[in-house]
Amino acid sequence: MASYQAPLRDMRFVLNEVFKAGEEWASMPGTTEVTPDLAEAILEEGARVTRAELFPLNQSGDAEGCHFAAGKVTTPKGFKEALRTLADGGWFGLGGNPEFDGQDLPKMLTVAFEEMLYATNASFALYPALNTGAALLLDHHATDAIKRTYLPRMYAGDWLGSMCLTEPHCGTDLGLIKTRAVPIDGDSGYAITGSKIWITGGEHDMVDNIVHLVLAKLPDAPAGTRGISLFLVPKRRVDASGELGEANGVVCGGLEHKMGIKGSATCVMHFEQAQGVLIGEPHQGLATMFTMMNYERLSIGIQGLGLGEVAYQSALDFARERLQSRAPQGAVAPDKPADPILVHPDVRRMALNVRAWNEGGRAFAAYVGSQLDRAKFHPDAEMRTDAEALVALLTPIAKAFLTDRGFDATVEAQQLYGGNGYCVEWGAEQYVRDARIAMIYEGTNGIQAMDLVGRKLYKNAGAHVARFAAVVREDLGSQAPVGLEDFHGACQRELARLEEVTAWLLDRAQQSPEELGAAAVDYLNLFGYVAYAWMWWKMARAAQAGLDASGAAGESFYRAKLAVGRHFLARMLPRSEALARQIEAGAEPLMALPEDAFYPRG
Amino acid sequence: MASYQAPLRDMRFVLNEVFKAGEEWASMPGTTEVTPDLAEAILEEGARVTRAELFPLNQSGDAEGCHFAAGKVTTPKGFKEALRTLADGGWFGLGGNPEFDGQDLPKMLTVAFEEMLYATNASFALYPALNTGAALLLDHHATDAIKRTYLPRMYAGDWLGSMCLTEPHCGTDLGLIKTRAVPIDGDSGYAITGSKIWITGGEHDMVDNIVHLVLAKLPDAPAGTRGISLFLVPKRRVDASGELGEANGVVCGGLEHKMGIKGSATCVMHFEQAQGVLIGEPHQGLATMFTMMNYERLSIGIQGLGLGEVAYQSALDFARERLQSRAPQGAVAPDKPADPILVHPDVRRMALNVRAWNEGGRAFAAYVGSQLDRAKFHPDAEMRTDAEALVALLTPIAKAFLTDRGFDATVEAQQLYGGNGYCVEWGAEQYVRDARIAMIYEGTNGIQAMDLVGRKLYKNAGAHVARFAAVVREDLGSQAPVGLEDFHGACQRELARLEEVTAWLLDRAQQSPEELGAAAVDYLNLFGYVAYAWMWWKMARAAQAGLDASGAAGESFYRAKLAVGRHFLARMLPRSEALARQIEAGAEPLMALPEDAFYPRG
């Protein structure tokens, strides 16, 4: 059966030993109050509350799903109560602005809690994830009056946010949207009319109001993405005193029937002369929305991580009990009819693959979180700018690589069960279905890759990548610590490979714009491998330090960390070389086939 | 929406141009009657009947599923009628023994029909697939009296076969089974008692009788897999004249709830003093069962292929209509609001990946089919033995590599839809769910890999692999035809890599039995890449010949074939190098972690 305890020891290791979070937080004025004790309390209570409230609703929520009738959406049994418990516990405003009752905690810490949310109940997790992103956007771009009205309620989970971008004819290409916003005479507001699809939490029964952030076009909007504006459109109108008023022209038209995340209400939303308020500047809606989208992209990456972790733990629980055949070296449990399957090298290979993805991803998510914190809290403007550049560069990788690997992890974990993995009762197949969406929504992983090679690489002529390489190289130092030569050498080698491929690609892209698109996904994956090789170097160094300092007490944890890292080096990292070769094959093989030859028939 | 037409042009290409099926069949006494015209008629009518009868039931069958009540299983609406139509059309006895009304057609031809079955309705396809395997087993191992009674009914689809191996505590390790067979006093039969799980088509409402092939232990059975015997246990007893008698002690205890193939009844079966007949020798049941299992393994490989093909065609249909953004070189459809997504290099990459898997797999399945035909029909005993060895070697690869790549294909095709791919109505997500099981059942792909490195490689000290290499090398010749140097060179290089890795592994395995298990899955995948590189060489050569001979008529087909092949060489085949490096990392990284360290908690 599904089994999960938040990996607190590993989270502490990442925070305290790999990234020295205590020192980091003490060094920035905005985070000095975040002591290691406070962080520990949040991790422990977060682990408790998600396990107690959300995990028991995961399989039942999948079986029941959301239901739609007469414009109303009913979430699965227990969701509403669990939401209330978490919201009342203060878990919805962790990173929020303290001026409006947020807790202003560092992202490096809250990513760990997000992982617990997704691991225990990915469908449920999406409601607070969207809400947090929406609140972040309002905090950045809304007027003080709006913030005062909305943010305390959103941090309290009394109202929840949603993000309304996609329309039936356009998902990726938002320049094509048809939703219109017309100024209302004698009012500062707008009347919004149009239909949106795939709106997570667009309508449901858990809170009194839903705060829709809606992309629409003003009457004078230029064509394409430069003509999009962003509006706050509440489900129920809010009067000047902040009290709930009458229903706004916002109607749910139905739910999608999906492969997974069935407890998440994915809505068709119709806006019919709904009253909205402009957020940010006219025609700058897409840029404004990116405040939320970048937040969600990291969050969705963590969906991959959380599902990979719960899939690992559940599969290992199965593996411990399941007896099949004998170890290749002879029986290890001669008193039993067969040995536990973990004696088999190939079962270990699968388990180690999953674990190495998870632990690499956990460190990487924390690293991106730490850079978000620097960008927000660091007193030195140059440090903030540097951190922002790294975040910009790494966000598409965090979204796509963590979700691709998270999906791989759930598939590999499912394989470990044999036939049981395909049967619903064990829960493994749900993790695969729930993880699959993370590669698609919030910008498909192909779109993330285009963002990486386009905006984050080509547009600045590789400056962000060069900065990343400098950071890694400084971290590596010139001399490998004794005993860690393999981690150090692998990271150096992979970084050099990335730099070579980057230079090649920048050069090639001058010749043809098709080269960027042709390389994009393989380049993102290559970058992901390099980033994880760096994370494994950092973790190996911290594990070695722990081993040197701990004596027998923590020994098994640190030795395991090094062993998992060496599995990564030996049996996963070699794939980067293939990616480099695939990239260097260039666009020509992709473009050679005429379009009509893609449809062979008869 | 889902879209499929059997890829007849490509099937003809594989049969007639790549493998010269007409010459092959004309050269063997048992197949001389199979003319190209007959083959063509079977392909065309097979394409028609599967598309008309099975494809419309695919999504409805998934939505409805099978239902269990009071010991009875109801299959989805339309399945029973479709089964009757196909059976009456003679489609269930295609490869059967002509002495008992089978049609004795070559496997190289029938694999194409199997692909159509799986592509149009994977759930449905399993009923005839199990039946054909069961009939094959009886034809090899049963007495003439039993064959006379059962085979004509099974070929006619009046009765269907099932395969009863797994028990709750053992799937892979069949030595642990507890089902018992006790001789019945004064009778040649046995009373079978025990429970089996995951029995595809174990009970359903489509036919009058179900022919269970059941593994059980005789009272004097030695422990382990050497103590298993095989019994024919009909759902309803059959009297001496072959007429249906009373119910046997065979009871369905329920259905599994599964991730996919929901139209396939996966049953818990209880045998309660059920009367059975021993098939084959006592205690040789597993060897006897392998006649069926080897058949099913190739068949399940084709499940991966069929689902990859229908996923490709459906995704391309979507891609043709979907307009998003502009081509990197500038608008190609300036009159439309955006360009069709196939202008984007990364969309092409996904489509070409899927197509290259499918076309490589189609050729490989035909090749294995051709060797099965030689093993059965060739007049020269040495040729038969040679072919048998190749079939033994390639069967685990056909099962595992085709299903792994089939799953990859369905996932990549789903990605091509963006968010629509996750919504049930489009059908793409069903293909992913239906393909996932193929990596698990019929021996997990890990077990296939163990079979490959154990029985098929190590046990004969690499003789089968050496034979395979000799066949490939002879086919390649020393000189590459002008214009095909890339295909020729890649195949030579990959074959050399496989030989090197094989020699390394045979040597390593002497030192520790763990090395085989550690290498198994990566070795199977490496072998798969090499086999596909060979298939692409063969296809490229045939395409070039077609191009030279055809003039303008077939030009676009052949040019497309070469382009897809070059995509395979440039952007997929590089992965083989990573696999080789991963294998050569050896068992140590997998075995380093102590068992208890796999369970990090708290």
From TrEMBL, chains A, B:
Key words, A-Z: FAD, Flavoprotein, Oxidoreductase
E.C. number, please? 1.3.99.41
The Acetyl-CoA dehydrogenase-like C-terminal domain extends over: 479-594
Q: Which cofactor names does the annotation list?
A: FAD
The residues forming a coiled coil are none
Give all residue intervals belonging to the Acyl-CoA dehydrogenase/oxidase C-terminal domain.
Answer: 284-452
- Broad class of enzyme this protein falls into: oxidoreductase
Task: Tell me the ranges covered by the Acyl-CoA oxidase/dehydrogenase middle domain, including all copies.
Answer: 162-273
The UniProt catalytic activity note for this protein reads: 3-(methylsulfanyl)propanoyl-CoA + oxidized [electron-transfer flavoprotein] + H(+) = 3-(methylsulfanyl)acryloyl-CoA + reduced [electron-transfer flavoprotein]
Q: Which GO terms describe its molecular function?
A: flavin adenine dinucleotide binding; oxidoreductase activity, acting on the CH-CH group of donors
Q: Where is the Acyl-CoA dehydrogenase/oxidase N-terminal domain?
A: 80-158
**Function per UniProt:** Involved in the assimilation of dimethylsulphoniopropionate (DMSP), an important compound in the fixation of carbon in marine phytoplankton, by mediating the conversion of 3-(methylthio)propanoyl-CoA (MMPA-CoA) to 3-(methylthio)acryloyl-CoA (MTA-CoA).
Q: Which family does it belong to?
A: Belongs to the acyl-CoA dehydrogenase family.
Q: What is this protein called?
A: 3-methylmercaptopropionyl-CoA dehydrogenase
**Organism this protein belongs to:** Modicisalibacter muralis
